[in-house]
Specification:
This protein has one domain: TIM Barrel (Alpha-Beta Barrel), CATH 3.20.20. The chain contains 12 helices and 9 strands. It is α/β, with parallel strands linked by helices. Helix content is 40%, strand content 13%. Helix 1 crosses helix 3 and helix 3 packs parallel to helix 5.
Amino acid sequence: MTAPARLPIIDLHCDLLVYLSDVPGSAIDNVAEIGCSLPALTQGNVRLQTMAIYCATAPGSTKYAHLQAEIFHKLATDERSCLTAVKDVESLHNALSGKGDIGMIASIENASGFCEEDEPLEDGFKKLEKIIEAVERLLYISFTHHLGNRFGGGNSTDQGITRDGKMLLDYMHGRRIAVDLSHTSDALAFDILEHIDRERLDIPIIASHSNFRPVWEHNRNLPDELVQEIIRRKGLIGMNFLRAFVNTGEPDALLQHIRYGFEKGAEDAICFGADYFYTSDFPDPTRVPFYFPEHEQAGTSYTYLLERLLEHLTPQQLEKLAYRNVQHFIERIWA
């Protein structure tokens, strides 16, 4: 079997673009400041990293998101960055081959990035098209972040979908962009699924960086009913490495989350969504440390987890977790 350290890794979520747009003096090779720096991705054999375009719901959000899309474009076109945009199945396979640059693909975390609260929805869709033009391809869109916005309720609310949220789903139909449930309220998640089914929309479903609520009770984690819906719809569930969503006192709980996923039938859905971001200016000191030492750097965390799981999972299951589930998902929705 391929040693865990040599398995290619695909990760569904990081905030490197936010770090590069926010932090004075930031650089993609600054290992000390962010867990998904370029040297860490290289050491960890990450072959495809999803780069989230994130902004809070506030005036100016669309300018902020556009800036991050431009940073993505510059990274993808700068030969010195060692990063390249994955925009089709061929470039996906090139990235996984390990012979060239690390692949990256953009996503939108919070739809306020392309549509502010007080502007016409049609103008927001035009801004979304501009983002897609800059990054060439989007893997997924998250409607919200922790709080609510014009599209629905975030994970810290009990608000469901709005009229604009339904119109966003109608817009996404057939565009081969997944809708991400990681930051929805439970009510919004079920409303999204209901609208997709009622209108017979063609939209893939994922949870890009969420763990399992029965293992650790947190509103960022998935209840079993949503887990089963994602499995049934052939989606993805990316394991989040943040201590707050794993178990604040037990580092081995991340292994429990992964094993729980396999036990609950998520063998073809489970993957990584580590959620590395710049933490130094975070306002809540109770979150420190954000990651357990075993999980704080992409350079070592994936290999550590895969090696610990050797006694519990088959070589084929380890491959699915590391990269094959995401590979097959992308191949299917982009075909």
